[in-house]
Specification:
The protein folds into 2 domains: 69 residues, Alpha-Beta Plaits (2-Layer Sandwich), CATH 3.30.70; 153 residues, Rossmann fold (3-Layer(aba) Sandwich). Helices cover 29% and strands 35% of the residues. The protein is built from 9 helices and 14 strands. Strands 10-9-8-11-12-14-13 form a 7-stranded mixed sheet, with helices on both faces. The longest helix has 13 residues. It is globular and about 50 Å long.
């Protein structure tokens, strides 16, 4: 099997558009190299790909990787990530050799198509808020689950019912694989978005780009009984976005940031 590796450099305000377009074309995963006014990142595809003209404008380099080199590329870029004093995200190939610190909570992830390997700020912001505000026995909904990392965290923290939903093809298998690697079970998967999930939840989380998130805010509100965690919002988008969520009957209780990104906890 031959994989394609593309390197892009894009203005920060167009990053969400570009990555969303790439995933719609079957991107298996991305890795951010540099982030500032411009974002430079790599994107990986399986097999041949003819990039649309509007995406080629941001293309810096491209190449091919064989199966062995694909694995080596991920191993070169993807290292254990310390999310908080307790939380770690560790690549799957280090399971059994990673020295888990005493009292730590470790999640093992095989980097695939689904977003959420712990390398991106928005994932870490979401994890820290979940760690702080999810209570044992509460129900949990993960909208746009990607790799399943946030749902796995919720199960490890003692959530009772955990539902993960995503509209992308192939995500369910990734969630199952990563849950198995992290030794958790009983994660329900729903192919679709929040409106396709039955029931209400004590805590709802969505780590999604703003342009995809805003249209489903009413659905998130419908599913949320008390606490709503949102990440994926740029600092300059903060004021307008918070107003939109507050209009749905929520109050902003806490906000955190890392790099150029914001994360929020809203409550009823």
């Amino acid at each position: 099997m031959v994989y394609r590796e593309f390197t892009f450099k894009v203005p920060r305000e167009l990053y969400d558009f570009l990555t969303s377009s790439l995933f719609s074309l079957g991107c298996m995963g991305t890795y951010t190299l540099k982030e500032g006014k411009e974002v430079e990142f790599k994107a990986y595809f399986k097999g041949p790909l003819d990039l649309p003209k509007e995406l080629k404008l941001f293309l810096v380099d491209e190449g091919t990787l064989k199966e062995r080199n694909w694995n080596e590329a991920w191993k070169r870029y993807y290292k254990p990530v310390k999310v908080s004093s307790k939380l770690w995200v560790v690549p799957s190939w280090l399971k059994g050799s990673f020295p888990e610190p005493e009292g730590s909570l470790v999640i093992y992830i095989y980097p695939g198509r689904g977003f959420g390997t712990g390398t991106h700020e928005t994932t870490r912001l979401s994890m820290r808020l979940i760690e702080e505000f999810l209570r044992e026995g509460e129900s949990f909904l993960d909208v746009g689950t990607g790799s399943g990392i946030l749902s796995i965290l919720a199960r490890k923290l003692g959530a009772s019912r955990v539902v993960a939903c995503d509209v992308q093809e192939g995500v369910e298998e990734e969630v199952k694989r990563n849950a198995y690697l992290s030794e958790v079970d009983s994660i329900e998967f729903v192919k679709g978005s929040a409106r396709d999930v039955k029931g209400e939840f004590d805590l709802v989380v969505a780590n999604i780009e703003k342009h995809l998130l805003e249209p489903i805010l009413p659905d998130l509100a419908t599913k949320c009984k008390g606490k709503l965690i949102i990440s994926g919002i740029l600092k300059e988008q903060r004021k307008d976005f918070v107003k939109k969520v507050e209009k749905l009957g929520f109050n902003l209780r806490k906000e955190v940031e890392e790099g150029i990104w914001k994360g929020f906890l809203f409550t009823r």
